[in-house]
Amino acid sequence: MTIHREGTATIALVAFVVDILNLINFSYLFPISTILGWSFFALTIAFFLFIVSFFRMPNRALTMDASAIVSPADGKVVVIEEVMPDEFYKEPRIQISVFMSPANVHVNRLPVAGKIIYNQYHPGKFLVAWHPKSSTDNERWSVVVENEKGTILLKQIAGALARRICNYAAVDTAFNQCDEYGFIKFGSPPCISANSLSPIMILFSTLALAFFKAYSNISFCGFKLLLASEVMTSIK
């Protein structure tokens, strides 16, 4: 396991703050109460370890399958529904919403190989992830990847805690399946679309969310993935 580059400055800052707080703690709180002193020390260490784990990059065997759309992130599938996309596409798509909790790995990876043909940042609000309008009103970053089978629209969507989206998918850049294309700092949701109504737990890039003959006009968002209605899916 390694630490993501987006976490270097944050971890260093938190470590500095924890050191200062515990210096004060050992100097003033411990003489008053050792129980309170040790409790405070334990809480600060737990908080520091949480920050480190947030930016972790586990070593995993990534799925490489040209016939599959793999999950772009860790999380839980919470909504599967047909929606009318608010950009790029003009026809309805099936949307799969994947909720990423603060405990999940927050790296985002491309579900298929292809070339980036669209990249658009949308400023917005920071509603909680489960709010009905979080996917349309929140700050988000939309990316479309294209290959010989069609296109997929992906959206990284910020939440109440995950207020910063990092996106590395420049237009005209070619990516392999499961290549990292972004990171969402401090907790939000990704999504994918398929014809199933059963919520499932997923680990990004290790589980194929959908299999199909062709995925022309598929939409995907870091909080949702939208698939064309003719797509043949098999969620495991």
Would you mind describing this structure in some detail?
The protein is elongated. It has three helices and 16 strands. Mean pLDDT is 74; it is low at 187-236. 21% of the residues lie in helices and 32% in strands. The two termini are 26 Å apart. Helix 1 (8-32) runs antiparallel to helix 2 (34-54). The strands form four sheets. Strands 4, 5, 7, 8, 9, 11, 13, 15 and 16 form a nine-stranded mixed β-sheet that branches. It is α+β, with helices and mostly antiparallel strands and 236 residues long.
Structure described in brief:
By secondary structure, this protein is α+β, with helices and mostly antiparallel strands. The protein is 21% helix and 32% strand.
Quote the beta fraction.
25-35%
Beginning-to-end CA distance, first to last residue: 26 Å
Order of helices and strands: EHHEEEEEEHEEEEEEEEE
Rg value = 20 Å
Characterize the largest beta sheet: strand count, sense, and whether it forms a barrel.
9 strands, mixed
The helix count comes to 3
- What sort of overall outline do the alpha carbons produce when their principal axes are compared? elongated
- Helical coverage, percent range: 10-25%
Average pLDDT over all residues: 74
Which assembly state applies to the chains in this document? single chain
Q: What structural class should be given to the helix and strand makeup? A: alpha+beta
Q: Uncertain segments of ≥5 residues (pLDDT<50)?
A: 187-236
Number of strands: 16
